[in-house]
Amino acid sequence: MAETPAGTPAETPAGTPAGVPAPLRGNRDYRRLLVAGLVSQTGDWAISTGLAFHVYQLTGSTLSTAIMLVVSRLPDVLLGSVAGMLADRWDRRRLLVVTDLLLALGLLPLLAVRDPAQMWIVYAVALWTGVLSTVLVPAQKALLPQVVAGSQLVRANALHGQSGQLARLLGAMLGGVAVSAGGLPAVVLVDVASFVVSAALQAAVRTPGRPARSMSAGGQWISGLRLAMGNAGVRVLVAYMVITGLGEGIFATLAAPFVADVLGGGGDAYGLFLSVQAVGGLLGGLVVAARPGGASPRALLGWGTIVFGTVDLALFAYPLALPALGPGLGFELGSALWPALVLIVLAGVPAAAAMAGFTTLAQTVTADDRRGGVIGLLGSAQAATALAGMAAAGVLGGALGIVPTLCLHALGLAAAGGMVLLTWRHA
């Protein structure tokens, strides 16, 4: 079969999902990557949901769950740049396949966990999977431009983001069902199977050869840091990740108090509040992928983030008006959840557009042989500032209040989007 230089077959295979734009429908390698990501991320959400529930049942301690989460996130902070360097130094397809298989093997010790004294196994597995996941992300994102034409990169990234939201919906439900039906072993086996399937799909991906890197690993890492300091576009993206990472940490910390103390909801309302944002993400991915002309990555990132921040500001501020408007409109504080659900779905649409724009800019701001390092650096910046945001939320939430602190996060999003629009043209 004749193929274009970008690796996209000239004919469209039968049975391809109708929602995928035609140039991507014909690209078998892209479809394999898309399905592999959906499968592995579904498994990840399943085990993160099921394991957190199982750990709490096993220990009765929220501290144990918190330790597990922190241990799994630390590699993102400490190793992101190094992991990105590996994606530039080694063959990315092989790196993905090997990492998936190592992740599958690394989960098997969880099958031995039976009592609280064995929690060290959970922590060790969380660290192992955290390190390997840090390697996985830059390799996945850096590989995509090797199999997708530049003109289709925004759409491809939008669909990848959409698959992540779908995995969030499916995986959370699957994890809850699996842990209820078969306990921790059932959840572990689901995730192991997802990584094996993902490895098989990625092993079949055909990628153009890349020249071997002659520079030492240490020299490449130092060179990558110099690139970040010297590339104006990279500096803009790092600043964006610092601002939005702080906001992510604030939201992660204060979302539950917002639902419980401000909206008067319970645990079921909190779960619904978090899950429905994925619906907006799915819609946003479809909108970006379906646009015939498509917007520029800069416009998607800048305006998408501004709109995202504006909707978030409405989401966090509307409860302040309820005491005055409530009696006239039939509102009571405890029944004020539905506007929050509508607004968080709406927020997911521009958030998906912004993420597609961000990923595309990160993939194209530098040459192929530096792409993984840039993506890894951006991941480290986000992870580090998210942890700082969590700490800041604990202080500001008490000093300023839950709603004002969340509104600061929303204003930060709008400011980050404006920064991109004002500065990227000069990058």
From TrEMBL:
Region Disordered, annotated ranges: 1-23
Domain Major facilitator superfamily (MFS) profile positions: 233-427
InterPro entries (UniProt xref): MFS_dom, MFS_trans_sf, TM_effector
Transmembrane segments: 33-56, 62-83, 95-113, 119-137, 236-258, 270-288, 300-320, 340-362, 374-396, 402-424
GO cellular component: plasma membrane
PROSITE patterns reported for this sequence: MFS (PS50850)
One Pfam family named in its UniProt record: MFS_3
Signal peptide (residue range): none
Protein's UniProt keywords contain Cell membrane: yes
PANTHER family named in the record: ENTEROBACTIN EXPORTER ENTS (PTHR23513:SF9), INTEGRAL MEMBRANE EFFLUX PROTEIN-RELATED (PTHR23513)
Protein name: MFS transporter
Organism (species): Nonomuraea deserti
Top-level taxonomy: Bacteria, Bacillati, Actinomycetota, Actinomycetes, Streptosporangiales
